[in-house]
Request: fold
Amino acid sequence: MNSFSYSRPDDVNAAVGEISEQTQAKFIAGGTNLLDLMKENVEHPQHLVDINHLPLGFIDELPEGGLRLGALVTNADTAYHELVQKNYPLLSMAILAGASPQLRNMATNGGNLFQRTRCYYFYDTATACNKREPGSGCGALTGYNRIHAILGTASSGNTPQCIATHPSDMCVALRALDAVVRVSGPNGDRTIPIADFHRLPGDEPERDNTIEPGELVTAIDLPAEHFNTHYTYLKLRDRASYAFALVSVAVALRLDEGGQIAEARIALGGVAHKPWRNPAAEALLTGKAADTTLFRQVAEQLLDGAQGYGNNTFKIELAKRAIVRALDMAYAGSTQAGDAYKQEDIL
Amino acid sequence: MSNYIGKPLSRVDGVAKVTGKAKYAAEFDAPDLTYGYVVSSTITKGRITHIETSEALSLPGVLSVITHENRPKIAWLDMSYKDQDAPPGSPFRPLRDNKISYSGQPIALVVAETFELARYAASLIRVDYREAPHETNLDTNLHRARKPKSGLASLLKPPPPKPRGNFDEVYAASPAKVEGRYSHSPEHHNPMEMFASTVVYEKDGKLTIYDKTQGAQNSQLYVTQAFNMSFSDVRVISPFVGGAFGSGLRPQYQLFLAVMAARELKRSVRVTLTRQQMFTFGHRPATIQNIALGADSNGKINAIYHDAVGETSQFEDYTEIVPTWSPMIYPAENVTLDYKIVPLDVFTPLDMRAPGGVTGVPAIETAIDEMAYELGIDPLELRLINYSDRNMAEDKPFSSKELRECFRQGAERFGWAKRNPKPGSMRDGHNLIGWGMSTGMWEANQMPARAEAVLTVNGKLRVTSATADIGTGTYTIMTQIAADTLGMPMEDVLFKLGDSDMPLAPIEGGSWTAATVGSAVKVVCEELGRKLFKLAQKIPGSPLAKAKWDDVEFVDKHIRLKQNPAAAVSLQQAVDQNGGAAVWQKSTSLPAMMKQKNYSRAAHSAVFVEVMVDEDLGTIRVTRAVSAIAGGKILNPKTARSQIIGGMVWGISKALEEESVMDHTIGRFMNHSLAEYHVPVNADIHDLDVIFVEEHDDIVNPLGVKGLGEIGIVGMPAAIANAVFHATGKRIRELPITLDKIL
Amino acid sequence: MQTTLPKQPVTRPAPRLVPTQPVTLTINGTPHQLQLAPWTSLLDALREYAHLTGTKKGCDHGQCGACTVLVNGKRINSCLTLAVMKEGDDIQTIEGLATGDPANPESLHPMQRAFIEHDAYQCGYCTPGQICSAVGLMNEGHAKSRSDIQELMSGNICRCGAYPHITDAIQEVMQQTPKNA
Reply:
């Protein structure tokens, strides 16, 4: 970790001002990912702007029925917030599937959007990584790539530049919910649909998202559509908790009175550089009732074009099966997580 | 006698552990302490052509960067680097020269006034290398397998016995046959405490070293030899060890580097490894095994073939006992075994919980399950058909073996009788349920050890021995043994360990500490008791004046006649008789070789496991497991249960989760963090049940104990793999069984 | 075969050191004035500067939970926050859980007593983090069942494998604690 200077402004304009004035400055909120990467010498900011004292710790209802999540509300406070649990249980479920209680008590909603990949090569400065050191190559492509992407890895050349995945659980739910990210920057405020916030690696794998220099996420807006009856977040990983997803699936369904699917949203985590959706696949479900064959078709469509690189090839079939299962669960209205084994001793 | 032995007592060091007062190696302070940070090689093999330290040294507060170019002179002979657990070969010497032998090799130590500064300065060091091609893949180098060199270590790890009978012929004629190839990935110990040494540079140049080790005297020996120092100038202290599981059996390189820096700078130095660097020394070697079993139609196994090839480094021949477990468990008449190693560009492997045992036993116990299906015989029944009271690897009877009782009690507790053998016959929704079982076995050794006991003038007993407590409960059981032997309350007994100045004890491993140090504690307390008895007899008008040693017992802080408890002298009175001085005794306990040599001595277990496997998604949960243990006398059922449960958790980890994955293209372990090297979390562990089967053994050692550090893990992996087969019909012979292998 | 390694390191500014500054941390109710540079983590501030070594470093990357402390009653990983960011906060460590003389078992926090009683540790290295985490779990109030405890204690790795006993200890303390306490 290099040495850096530190400041602690208490309003948004001051924070945005400071980040623009300092060279190689970064915002720090929870710090759970940034400090980790600084210790690994992957990130080397010269100045940190501590934004924890900005007034962004709110969760407010929006007039048209949505919910505005302040950027500095912790993941834990968001997941356990009464309105989130009642109206957006999918989001709550996804957040609680991620990290650990300690990390969720630290990590913020804004910071979660900026989580960087867990690719082994990105983290290890002894290896080649186009995301960390553009032009150095991708160690994962020919190396150990069990946790890597199977979708959206194309670049202009023949071989992908980067097969890293986005590690967030929360963002997968946000993608399914069509959240909107609110930012303030040197040129004023703007909103970014979550679909456009994260990006695919293409030829610039060093860029995780579309935020501009100096911009600060101030809030995340959840639209009025709640999806609070037929939803699930299914996360598959190498142990029961405290592990990143191999594959995760967020499903949000709206059923009509006859029990047929009026609208379906399916977002995948752990498979691409950003939470993955495919509107064409979702459309297959419109007007249909639950049907495993149909669900499998949807899964095939969602994984259309998927490519494995050796150790991660199993993810293609795993993702398909996870999609079918998650659709089953969501349709049935059973809200259990991936862990089917539950002991029922009530305290 | 008081009777603490056998009681489920809480640990004597419990308060220290729950209040944060227990101090580990990196937690001892020293005046003007400096901090060292290790720079690790980014290549796997080759030479350093240039190492640029100027930028790091330009920072105020950076005191030194020690590399192979500027290091002080160190011992020249290989012999000087041999610790008590060194395998045959030439031990690794940090900063010896510009040669790189494995990825992550330490190549420099930055010493600075603060930890943060040392860490930063380390990131500024630029290294140029000339790379050479490396080989790290066991699978693609099997053709290079060779017999290991033998050395001192071969005494404890003998090669497999010569073939017996005629395997080929009998196997060919066997009506029932199975064969398979079994493998597992390398694993790293990853104790929670990262390796650290705090070297305190005393005014006279003597060193007091707080080291993370399973043998303070082993670290002391290493430092004195490598740096040509006298024993009186090096004291190693290690009162608490934050887990080790074998990783502390050899001194790790941070010790060498910290000592070197302290002597060079004449200042105290602390070096703590990072979690990533915890993947840059010894590990459980990747091993590939082949097994073939031939049985008659009644299930009697007549032919066993078992070979194993493990990896080692290019500089030392690390070995394990692997195929020998087959004839140790099963009494076949026709047996062929083989064990070889392949030197690769990795660090020398290192004993890791049940080394060799949890490699060989799971393979044979999986093969036995395969044979049970081949024959259509219940797996438990098949094991009973092939039960043996003799260890056929040595052709000796066991000193005790209550495995049959383990099978019986374990099966009953688990409900094994209700098992439908058909794979996939039990389910709960999407979850397939499987039941599997396995035998476990681990040797019960005893080594020589010394201990000292002092009864102070105020009637308190202090007992010391230079052993370690890595979480095993050594502090507690030694206190129990001492208290019982001298009839004292445990509150009046203080057992201390982990100091090279204390009486000699072997490295704390191999499940031998309870037997070894426990025997020494018992002997020293008995001999102290004799001294106290003599003093008690000298008291004017002593009621014990005419008594013989055999007539007295030690009860309630008194020496009294067995026949007449009223005739008693208090221990306080006895020590008062010593002219105002404490009463002191130092003793040695040696294994009773003559008594032991005709017997094979081992702990056994029967393990029963239930798994739930999601039929679509491949996720596996061990929902319950029963381990029935025949481990001799159980000194403290509370700490003993913890050891077994810990072993069972390790078994789950080995079977389902943990592996160090190397990218062979670059020869580097890539999942070098606790986020990506998966060990179980709380939510992975469900119902674990432990049964201690009554087992009496007066041959194994005077206490009748067998040690419990390893037996808990040995049977678990095969029981789980067999349960996965029972659930899914898929036979996975490659550990860990991650979900992709089930899909 | 070799993958392409970085041809040259990314250009970074010349080394420089940001000076230390006084930082006041309130630890277990007592203000500690420390002289720290911004880069000192809360964990290192506790261990190396305040000499409170009860809080453990098991990975330094938020992947094990050994460094768990309570900040304003909530559990966090002290390795992944900067000390300077916690000025003005109420920091509670394992050293602050017992009331009075820690040598007296009666003064121990109920969670500490339960850990001893259930043998919910072996080597003891993860223990302070487990206990602080367990106290945080109770403060947070989201665990309703044994499996909830297990899930919500999964941020604390115990390599010795004491989990069943850890869960037993916590369950017992929760059962003994009045719901509204």
